[in-house]
């Protein structure tokens, strides 16, 4: 069992440590006080009821509507869901000859065990939420004693109030792994403090003497603080030319202190502070570091959305109550009633019909509300919502057109594209998780020194038992019943490196695997007897694993062995190689068939488009022909009408001529020979 606690230090050393604590706290408060104020304002703006309206703006509006139409929660939830879907995860890789992939998998399984037992996903998402809302979050890596066994467990815990964490503001590395101190205030109930440490401090004199204040005396609480301090020493490293150079070595110490004394202390394994920061957008302006999340740039458009929605609601509510134009003296005696006409439903409104001189007041005229202003409010609100989406980096993929032929993977890709505007937050979370992995990689061989059996967690969230211990010359323990010698792992053997992977969640991976294996089995049903157990293990419906277990029993004995339980015979290796080649060929044929199908679909679409063009051309020609025939018919009708009009006129002229001749004849005039047509 590890016992990293050193012997108690001298009183003078304790005083120096307390002085350094107050100096570090004062440095943090001096450098980051303005930053903390801005981060707190962002936090309240996002989470506090009515926090999106300032006190001045609310007072100016009085009893008028002050709606809070929260449009910030959507982008924040979207990004948090993206983190849940593709959360960065640590990957353990062997470095030297003492390490191997199987031991690396065991160590990684211990990592997952720690995360599962600690509910680390809560710590990660809590820090990510603070990162998005105000620009920085934290979680804490620590140890706790087992309630029954004489060993410790490693835990990853959330920090609910990141603004109370005093972290070294001089950090320069992207993950803040170069931090030199961290201070975590802890408020205890008086009875809890007395049960653990005895009587509480009652004076602030020593705080003043030490040159600073940590606000040690909150109301009805007793404040203590966890103080992580980094000191640096330098080791002489020889060079090939015979000279030496200095290598910095970081040492981390932990102190639990009250206002007067150091209560507990211990050495921390490794060079890193176990208080893990998760940063938002980091920028340096005039030498001052600024951190912000999604909220900072989005406050103005969100305020304008609230303002214009409130104004539109006010206009809409008063739309049926136009403003009356009436003499002030006519309603002077009833002003209290008239002042509330828009907020109360009066059955009638009293007025004085006559002035003091006995003259009647002019009749009141009604002015309708300006509905054009309502339209302007609505239009501007839409613009501000577009501005809000731009400042948050969030674009709604659901608003894009989805085609029926799109697969689930394609829609997931579109949704991923919509969240790419905030991918830098995910990158910073990945750096924080990697730093946590570096700490666990050093802590596990120390704190898991006592042989213990664990249910480690694999990549598929399935557990398997192993026994771990810290060898250091210790004889390997006898494996308990049900464990093979390969399942007993010495955690001190070998060196391992930590990387971070980002990708789809286990559920998404399962879906992809199901889809691909279904395609393979559809093309080569004979492979069901070889990979059928793997196919059913990838399913999520009930009894799928029972079917997989039965199919596995039907496999040849060498294929039933778990990885690492023995070598595979050459004939089986050859068979598997041939099956792999066959699978590759079938997969290639499937791809070629899919390409051919796509080509046929494209050809068919081209033919359809050509037929549609021909049909459109034929319809156009038919319309032109019909128009020509209609014009011909109209011209023929006009011609017939003209001929008929000429003939009628000719007949009228002849009739008139005959009438004239008859008249002349009856008057005794000589007759004229007429040539009748």
Describe this structure in words.
The protein has helices at residues 11-47, 55-61, 73-85, 101-118, 120-134, 190-197, 205-209, 295-317, 335-338, 371-392, 408-418, 423-447, 506-523, 528-537, 544-553, 557-560, 570-666; strands at residues 89-94, 136-145, 152-158, 166-167, 181-188, 222-238, 244-257, 262-268, 275-279, 281-285, 288-292, 323-325, 365-367, 452-457, 463-469, 488-490, 496-501. It is of the alpha+beta class and 677 residues long. Among the domains are: 11-83 and 116-294, no CATH class; 506-555, no CATH class; 575-627. It has a 5-stranded antiparallel beta sheet. Strand 6 and strand 7 form a beta hairpin. Helix 8 (295-317) runs antiparallel to helix 10 (371-392). The model is unreliable at 1-11, 397-406 and 671-677 (pLDDT under 50).
């Amino acid at each position: 069992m590890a016992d990293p606690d050193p012997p108690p230090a001298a009183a003078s050393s304790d005083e120096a440590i307390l002085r350094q604590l107050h100096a570090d706290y004062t440095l943090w408060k001096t450098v980051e006080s303005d930053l903390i104020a801005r981060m707190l304002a962002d936090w309240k703006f996002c989470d506090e009821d009515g926090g999106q309206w300032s006190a001045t703006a609310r007072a100016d509006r009085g009893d008028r509507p002050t709606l809070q139409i929260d449009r910030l929660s959507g982008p924040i939830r979207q990004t948090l869901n993206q983190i849940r879907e593709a959360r960065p995860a640590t990957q353990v890789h062997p470095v030297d000859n003492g390490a191997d992939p199987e031991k690396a998998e065991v160590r990684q399984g211990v990592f997952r065990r720690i995360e599962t037992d600690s509910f680390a996903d809560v710590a990660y998402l809590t820090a990510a939420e603070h990162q998005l809302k105000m620009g920085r979050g934290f979680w804490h890596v620590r140890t706790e004693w087992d309630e029954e066994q004489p060993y410790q467990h490693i835990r990853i815990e959330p920090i609910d109030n990141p603004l109370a964490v005093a972290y070294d503001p001089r950090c320069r590395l992207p993950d803040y792994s170069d931090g030199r101190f961290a201070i975590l205030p802890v408020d205890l109930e008086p009875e809890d403090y007395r049960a653990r440490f005895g009587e509480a401090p009652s004076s602030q004199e020593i705080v003043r003497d030490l040159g600073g204040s940590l606000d040690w005396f909150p109301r009805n609480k007793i404040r203590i603080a966890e103080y992580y301090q980094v000191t640096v020493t330098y080791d002489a490293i020889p060079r090939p030319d015979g000279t030496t150079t200095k290598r910095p070595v970081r040492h981390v110490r932990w102190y639990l202190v009250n206002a007067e004394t150091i209560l507990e202390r211990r050495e921390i394994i490794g060079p890193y502070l176990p208080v893990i920061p998760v940063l938002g957008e980091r920028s340096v302006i005039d030498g001052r570091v600024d951190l912000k999340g999604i909220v900072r740039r989005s406050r103005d458009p969100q305020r304008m959305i609230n303002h214009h929605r409130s104004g539109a609601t006010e206009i809409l509510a008063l739309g049926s109550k136009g403003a009356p134009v009436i003499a002030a003296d006519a309603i002077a005696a009833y002003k209290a009633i008239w002042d509330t006409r828009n907020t109360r439903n009066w059955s009638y409104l009293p007025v004085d019909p006559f002035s003091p001189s006995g003259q009647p007041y002019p009749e009141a005229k009604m002015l309708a509300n300006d509905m054009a202003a309502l339209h302007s409010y609505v239009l501007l609100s839409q613009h501000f919502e577009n501005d809000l989406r731009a400042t948050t980096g969030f674009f709604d993929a659901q608003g894009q057109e989805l085609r029926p032929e799109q697969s689930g993977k394609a829609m997931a890709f579109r949704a991923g594209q919509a969240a790419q505007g905030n991918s830098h937050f995910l990158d910073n979370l990945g750096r924080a998780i990697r730093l946590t992995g570096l700490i666990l990689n050093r802590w596990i061989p120390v704190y898991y020194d006592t042989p213990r059996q664990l249910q480690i967690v694999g990549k598929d969230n399935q557990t398997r038992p192993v026994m771990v211990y810290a060898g250091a010359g210790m004889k390997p323990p006898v494996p308990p019943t049900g464990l093979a010698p390969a399942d007993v792992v010495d955690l001190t053997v070998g060196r391992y490196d930590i990387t971070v992977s980002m990708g789809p969640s286990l559920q998404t991976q399962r879906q992809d695997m199901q889809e691909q294996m279904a395609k393979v089995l559809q093309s080569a049903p004979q492979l069901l007897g070889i990979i059928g157990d793997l196919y059913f293990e990838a399913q999520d419906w009930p009894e799928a694993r029972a079917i997989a277990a039965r199919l596995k029993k039907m496999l040849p004995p060498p294929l039933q062995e778990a990885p690492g339980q023995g070598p595979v015979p050459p004939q089986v290796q050859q068979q598997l190689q041939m099956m792999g080649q066959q699978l590759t060929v079938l997969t290639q044929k499937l791809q070629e068939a899919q390409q051919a199908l796509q080509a046929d679909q494209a050809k068919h679409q081209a033919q359809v488009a050509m037929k549609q063009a021909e049909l459109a051309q034929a319809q156009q020609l038919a319309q032109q022909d019909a128009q020509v025939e209609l014009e011909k018919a109209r011209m023929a009708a006009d011609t017939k009408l003209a001929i008929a009009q000429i003939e009628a006129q000719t007949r009228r002229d002849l009739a008139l001529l005959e009438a004239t001749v008859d008249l002349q004849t009856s008057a005794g005039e000589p007759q004229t020979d007429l040539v009748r047509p």
